[in-house]
């Protein structure tokens, strides 16, 4: 239980530092590594 709560808090902190746009941009890059070139 405690671990899940701390994990959720960590996700919230990460979400604040990295806006949804940044996270969305990472997904396609991971899906298509060729775009990184």
From TrEMBL:
It comes from Trichinella nativa. It comes from the Eukaryota. This is Uncharacterized protein.
